[in-house]
Amino acid sequence: MKIAILSRNPQLYSTRRLVNGARRRGHSVSIIDPLRCYMNITPTAPEIHYRGKPLTGIDAVIPRIGTSVTYYGLAVLRQFEAMGVAALNSSNAVARSRDKLLALQILANKGIGMPITGFAHSPDDTQDLISLVGGAPLVVKLTEGTQGVGVVMCETQSAATSVIEAFRGLDAYFLVQQFVKEAGGRDIRCFVVGGQVVAAMQRQAAPGEFRSNLHRGGHATNIQITRLERSTAIRAAKLLGLNVAGVDIMRTPGGPMVLEVNSSPGLEGIETTTGENIAAAIIEFLEDDVRRRRKGK
Ligand SMILES: Nc1ncnc2c1ncn2[C@@H]1O[C@H](COP(=O)(O)OP(=O)(O)O)[C@@H](O)[C@H]1O
Ligand SMILES: [Mg+2]
């Protein structure tokens, strides 16, 4: 197959692993910078041009779109889909997962466990919003943040009020969430490929930090997940329509709570922690997926 990886950075571990994984399985791969793709939106022969030439003959596209370029990246991905190229994760599914509010609403609707989460517009409702999630301490998070950036813990009601006012002043959309103390700064990253959890790791936040993101100094270890955690991760990915997803779950006495579902989960932490070849699993899934689509199934 001819595979395009939509990525801005060929040096990234994840990009390199996907390139090598695909080449090892006999595919030809090119890394395409989504910001250098331009397109004509036409009902007849949709095209993408890249650095002066039309992109042709591509069978499958792997989106690895950074959160800073979500809007443009999704436009490019939709154009690939319009050209009949198989996308590892569809533009609709990526869009759903990028918006934490939309994703949680979809998951809540189907009974997936999650921290109590509030969303409000008016400053007049701030105190009620804080009570709604059980008061301080609580977490305020941007609806489109990643790697722990834009996730703030507020220990007191007045800190929460100030942070909410500040985010509002910046015209940023944010969620207000119950702080799940029982999680102890830990969560579980379940890596889902094609409806199966192919690997899972526990992430523990650095001392003095509640965010377990590896980019924030979190420490990863192997973990055995429960059947319920496994089925929750698989359902969450499926409900958002993601073939490949990193589902973040907190283990609590009340059962698994999903924090978010990442559509471009990093490979480095999970591969080095578990020793699994996730890149190969992704490419094998893509091969099957393209085969199924060609058979019209
Ligand atoms: N409600 C919460 N209670 C406790 N810890 C939380 C809560 N929300 C987030 N965290 C911690 O912060 C980290 C980052 O939050 P997350 O919602 O996944 O945002 P991001 O997209 O920036 O990773 C999580 O992995 C978790 O460790
Ligand atoms: Mg996260």
Task: Write structural notes for this entry.
The chain has 3 domains: 2-96 and 284-294, Rossmann fold; 117-179, Dna Ligase, domain 1, CATH 3.30.1490.20; 182-277, D-amino Acid Aminotransferase, Chain A, domain 1. The protein contains 9 helices and 16 strands. It is α+β, with helices and mostly antiparallel strands and 297 residues long. Helix 2 (70-82) links the parallel strand 6 and strand 7 (86-87). The chain has helices spanning 13-24, 70-82, 91-98, 100-109, 126-132, 157-169, 227-240, 268-274, 278-294; strands at residues 2-6, 28-32, 37-40, 47-50, 53-54, 60-63, 86-87, 117-118, 138-142, 151-154, 174-178, 186-193, 196-204, 219-222, 244-252, 255-262. The strands form 4 sheets. It has a 5-stranded antiparallel β-sheet with strand order 14-13-12-15-16, sandwiched between helices. Strands 2-1-6-7 form a 4-stranded parallel β-sheet, with helices on both faces. Magnesium ion (MG) binds next to strand 16.
